[in-house]
Amino acid sequence: MLKRFMLWVCLLVPMGVQAAVAQDLAVVSQMRMPVWLERDGLRTPLQPGQALQAGDALLTGSQARVYLQMAEGSTVKLGADAHFRVAALEARGDELSAALEVARGAFRFTTAAIDKVLRKRDVRIRVAALTAGIRGTDIWGRSDDAADFVCLLEGRIGVSHADGTVASMNEPLTFFRAPRGSGPEPIQAVAPEQVQTWAEETEIAEHSGAAATGGRWRLVLGSFRREAGAATLLRQARDGGYAASVRPRPVAPGVMYQVVIAGFASRDDARAAALSVERDVGVKPLVTR
Questions:
Q1: Cis geometry, peptide bond prior to residue 179 (ω within 30 degrees of 0)
Q2: Measuring CA to CA, how many Å separate 149 from each of 92, 129, 136, 185, 247?
Q3: I want to staple 57 with a disulfide (CB 3.0 to 4.6 A). Which of 52, 85, 174, 191 is the partner?
Q4: Cβ of 226: how many Cβ atoms within 10 Å?
């Protein structure tokens, strides 16, 4: 019985957390499932609080969102149906050095107060055919079937295209766009209302089903007397991009195995997530604390 308990307890610790590097340079602060992590050829559901490392890729589902907290104080936000990769990530003295790739979908890189430990940043973000070099700014961008583009919200960036075009952007509310299959267009201004519409694609709305480290609400997808039943539902949920785990609970007589998704900050968030689970996994979860 002890061995069985230890087997299920291991499932409570995310693979990425078990293998986390000594200094976590990029951590999942909030997320709206389903989201998958690809690491070393394996695909698993992303976990709140999980540390990312060089080589990791994230794939977000329909309506999903992810916030990544970077070590020097910036935040990377990903929208739905995104394909994102951490090409490089390291600390060089007091500087965060990162190369991030957005093959598809919307993203935002936004800057907060610089952390006391890592006071500098050297970040490059590649948006399909475009590459932006960042040293303290706020940008939004997207890659889709029509075009690749980046919009400068604050600060300045250097941006380049695969055809060799290079441009400097230092005027807020301007964007650099490259239609699919052709060269980039001249830098253009954009209305604040349009920027607000774009920004909603990467924001996690209040009570929309987000999970985060420390959230006290959870979903119970099912309870089983036998491990096999719990394992089947666990695999189904995790294949669907939901960070489910099994929690053995002693009951008389024996053990009850519950398949749960934890980490929701409010009942409303848990309820919103339950609707997604019901749609994607095919079970109606119980919302509880």
A1: no
A2: 29, 9, 19, 10, 45
A3: 85
A4: 11
